[in-house]
Each structure stands twice: as structure tokens, then as C-alpha cells.
Specification:
The chain has 498 residues and is of the alpha+beta class. It is 32% helix and 23% strand. It has three domains: 11-63 and 164-302, no CATH class; 88-156, no CATH class; 367-498, no CATH class. The relative contact order is 0.09.
Length: 498
């Protein structure tokens, strides 16, 4: 690590504006979300402006995780996040010691026999009750002494919490994490070259094109620690394309790619840089070997070919694991449902749409007893719906219901990339890659790819005591069960019927 940046002197060149000024300490990962690594990097002006316009946005949207992990910040020791109780529309603030209403509950719709109001107040303290009663008296005049009062001790019910990732301000904070870590590791004469001016302008001046994307396609290499909540920074020097790419992960859930520099003619080092930190144990992981590989293009960095279903599904599944591990009593678990834009599905519900999207958005882990799967068979035929006339006889009128012909498309490629880089069984990845090497890209490979990614989700929602039945014709009757046994379920016996 280059010690020329962040040495003992309090003056030096700011890595934001590149001017020689008095420097202040800057946390590479914001302190508000548990970051520890800090150095003298930015002048006071750059530090303050970035903190207010970018880091504060990221911290605000990650407050839920900080509260759950009991992360303490020197700047905000009473950190909390807000939720709204679904049934009552009551606002609560969730602190590390529990849930508290954000304001008292007041009802003034009753009057006594003298016509005086009989307010009902639920306050959080005696002081809040006194302030509330004084306000009521000023507004309504004298009131009946028969006031009802209770301390705020009721357990919070189902609640919703909204947060947002991917805004421009949020992305500037993500980019700052990658850029300042790079600044710690290369010399000033390289850091201040014009190749890195675009990323500096984006971060510190809010100018130019966006340089960050939420990315679950090309960041699977950071997902090797399934049981840990980790902040990870990875700087990749693509010596072939002359690009410098940053990858950032927060809380082991959210993964981003950052375009730091294009066509960098003075590539600083062929060795990538990596920083792995656990905000719970406050310990850094060392002796970890980089696993990243080159991406194909700038589009892979800034516009990865990932579906909304992949992004939402991956994020929700990771958040559920997070809640189960780190939230005692499940008091904050309903927050997860709000992120999916829906609640736990009621019984006897029929969903219409792509089953992959429905599974990822609405169906909980290990919640289904029986699955019957009757997918298209790749029979290369078109199937019609035949209508009947008033007498019940078949009519000549008919429409095409679906075309059972699978072809390799961009969607199929995206699904295959998802399997290769996502949280899928190693056996499945190896098998699907072997199928593709053996058969190439063809209709059968497209069929198997679209089936595999859905079978994984079906296995996720299936109870340990549940059963899955796959209806398959002779055309794919060998490969599909093989895929289930060895690629996905790995434990269920398969019985074929002819």
C-alpha cells in the first residue's frame, strides 16, 4: 500500500480537487455503515460537500442494516430507521433497543356530559404527555379530567420500510469508496492523470455520466463468504483493455461495479487490490486471493445484462438470510416484504405471469408442500385453444395459445450468465457449462437453461418434506431429470414413467 497518501503531515494534495491543502481524514467506506479504514485524503471542503450530498444518502438508505448489526457511529449514537405499521398507519422509529412511535397517538372524538372533550392519548413518556395536553388545551380549551393515558409498550406489528439504492447521489458515494481505496494504493503522479478526471468530476462535482451500476452478473467472485456480512472493495486492472474497474459490496448483499478509468495508458500495476472487512467483528480479512476476471466491455460495467427479476430476487433472498441471522425475534422481518412490493401471499392465490418472477418476488423459502411442473416440452409445435359454440360442439374458431419452440435469445443468455455468476449450486454450474460445451448454443440448450433457473427457485420454495413432480415428454426426459438430480436437488430419487 502506497503511504504517500494519508501520511502524518496534515497538508498535502487533496485526492478530490488535486489542490495542495490541509487534509482531513476520510473513511473509505462511510463510518455511518461501519467503515473503519480512514486516511488523510480530502480537503475540508471536498470532505464536507461529499458527506452532505452523497455519503449521507447512502447512509440513510442503509440505516436498517446498521441498526440490526448494532453498528455505532461517533456522529450518530442514536441511529434509527423509520417504518410504518401496516394496519394502523402509525409511524415508528426502530432503534437498537427496540421500536418507538415517532409521535403520540391522540383521539379527541369523545365529549363528556358537560360537552368537554375527552382526549385519549398514548404517549412515550410523561414529558411527552404533558406537552401533548398543553397543546390540546390551547387548541380546544378545558377538557374532561377523565383522560386516558398509557405508556407506549405495545409490540410493533407488521410494518413497511422503504429505502432506495441506485440514485445518482447514492452512486457517487459508491464510486467514492472505490476511488479513495485506489488513492491509497497508487502514486500521486498516476492518480492525478487525466484518465481519472471523469470519475473525480462525477464524485466530487456531480458532473458527467454515471459511473456506477448495481451488478449481480459480474460480481459473483465477491460472494464466496455466504455466512458473513462483509464490506468488500476490489480494484481490477484490466491490462488488455486498459480499464480500471472497481467492485464494491456492502453488507454482503449489495454489489456494484464502478468504471474508474478508461484506456489508461500508464497502468499502475498488474496486481489487483482487495479489501475485505467485517463491520460486526470490526476485523479485516487478510491473505485473500483475488478471483476477478476481465469483463467484455464498458457496457458490462455500467449496463450489465441483468433482469429486474434477478436484481430484486437476489437482493430479497440475501436480505432474508440477513434478517434470519441478525435480527432476534423477527421484529424487523416485515421490512423485507416492503422491499418486494408485496406481503406474504395469502392462501388460495392464483398468480398470472412469468413463474420465475412470481417465485422470486412472492414465494417464501421452504413454504410449499407440493409442486407439479408441466412445462413446455420443446416439441417445436404450436398449440391452439379451440372454442366451443353454444351447443358445446367444437368451433372452427381458435387462437394460438403458445408456441413450444425454444430458441437462444438475449434473455436466454442473461439466464445462463445468471446461473454461472449467481448463488447457484456448483454442480449445476458445472453441468450447465458441460452441456453448453458439448451441445453448443442451440434450441435444446435454450430449453435446459430456462428450465434450470426456474427449477432452482422451485427447490428454494419447496419444504424439506415436500415433493416435486416434473411432467416431461421423451424428447427431454433424460436430460431434465438428470439436471434435477445432480444439478439442483441432489438428494431426490427420480422415477420415470412411460
Amino acid at each position: 500500500m502506497d503511504k504517500s497518501v494519508g501520511n502524518r503531515n496534515s497538508t498535502g494534495f487533496c485526492v478530490g480537487c488535486k489542490l495542495n491543502k490541509e487534509l482531513t481524514k476520510e473513511h473509505v467506506i462511510p463510518q455511518a455503515i461501519g467503515g473503519k479504514l480512514q486516511k488523510l485524503l480530502l480537503c475540508k471542503n471536498c470532505n464536507s460537500n461529499l458527506g452532505q450530498s452523497a455519503d449521507s444518502i447512502l447512509a440513510e438508505n442503509f440505516r436498517m442494516f446498521c441498526v440490526c448489526l448494532k453498528i455505532k457511529s461517533n456522529h450518530d449514537k442514536s441511529i434509527s430507521f423509520k417504518v410504518q405499521e401496516t394496519n394502523t398507519n402509525t409511524a415508528y422509529s426502530i432503534f437498537q433497543d427496540g421500536a418507538h412511535r415517532t409521535k403520540p397517538l391522540i383521539e379527541v372524538n369523545k365529549r363528556d356530559h358537560n360537552g368537554l372533550i375527552m382526549p385519549s392519548v398514548i404517549a412515550r413518556s410523561d414529558e411527552e404527555l404533558s406537552r401533548t395536553l398543553n397543546g390540546l388545551e390551547k387548541k380546544y380549551g378545558p377538557f374532561s379530567p377523565g383522560i386516558q393515558f398509557e405508556k407506549d409498550q405495545r409490540i410493533l406489528g407488521e410494518a413497511e420500510h422503504e429505502f432506495s439504492i441506485g440514485s445518482r447521489s447514492f452512486n457517487r458515494s459508491v464510486a467514492k469508496t472505490a476511488y479513495t481505496f485506489l488513492a491509497l494504493n497508487i502514486r500521486h503522479e498516476l492518480l492525478f492523470l487525466e484518465y481519472l478526471d471523469p470519475i473525480r468530476e462525477f464524485i466530487f462535482a456531480d458532473k458527467g455520466d454515471n459511473k456506477v451500476s448495481l451488478n449481480y452478473i459480474h460480481t459473483g467472485f465477491m460472494d464466496n463468504w455466504h455466512d458473513e456480512v462483509l464490506h468488500i472493495i476490489y480494484i481490477h486492472f484490466d491490462t488488455e483493455k486498459r480499464n480500471i474497474v472497481g467492485y464494491v459490496q456492502y453488507f454482503g448483499i449489495f454489489r456494484f461495479s464502478v468504471l474508474l478509468a478508461e484506456r489508461f495508458n500508464n497502468m499502475p500495476s498488474p496486481l489487483d487490490l482487495m479489501y475485505v472487512y467485517n463491520p460486526i467483528t470490526r476485523k479485516e480479512h487478510t491473505n485473500i486471493y483475488p478471483l476477478c476476471t476481465d469483463v467484455n466491455s464498458i457496457d458490462d460495467i455500467l449496463s450489465p445484462k441483468q433482469t429486474n427479476e434477478l436484481v430484486i430476487g437476489t437482493t430479497i433472498n440475501k436480505m432474508k438470510k440477513f434478517i434470519k441471522t441478525y435480527v432476534s425475534g423477527g421484529k424487523v422481518e416485515p421490512v423485507i416484504q416492503a422491499f418486494a412490493n408485496g406481503k406474504e401471499p395469502p392462501m388460495n392465490t392464483l398468480y398470472y405471469g412469468d413463474n420465475l418472477e412470481i417465485l422470486r418476488k412472492y414465494i417464501a423459502d421452504e413454504s410449499v408442500d407440493l409442486i407439479y411442473l408441466d412445462p413446455p416440452f420443446n416439441s417445436k409445435r404450436a398449440y391452439n385453444v379451440i372454442f366451443q359454440d353454444k351447443t358445446g360442439q367444437d368451433s372452427a374458431a381458435q387462437i394460438q395459445a403458445f408456441e413450444d419452440t425454444w430458441t437462444w435469445t438475449d434473455e436466454t443468455q442473461s439466464a445462463f450468465d445468471d446461473i454461472m455468476s449467481g448463488e447457484y449450486p456448483a454442480q449445476l454450474k458445472h453441468m450447465m457449462n458441460s452441456f453448453r460445451e458439448f451441445m453448443g448454443i442451440n434450441n435444446l440448450m435454450a430449453y435446459l437453461t430456462m428450465m434450470a433457473i426456474r427449477l432452482v427457485e422451485l427447490h428454494r420454495v419447496l419444504k424439506k418434506t415436500g415433493s416435486i413432480y416434473l411432467h416431461c415428454d421423451p424428447f427431454c426426459s433424460t436430460l431434465s431429470p438428470f439436471m434435477i438430480m445432480f444439478g439442483i436437488l441432489n438428494i431426490y430419487p427420480i422415477r420415470q414413467y412411460t
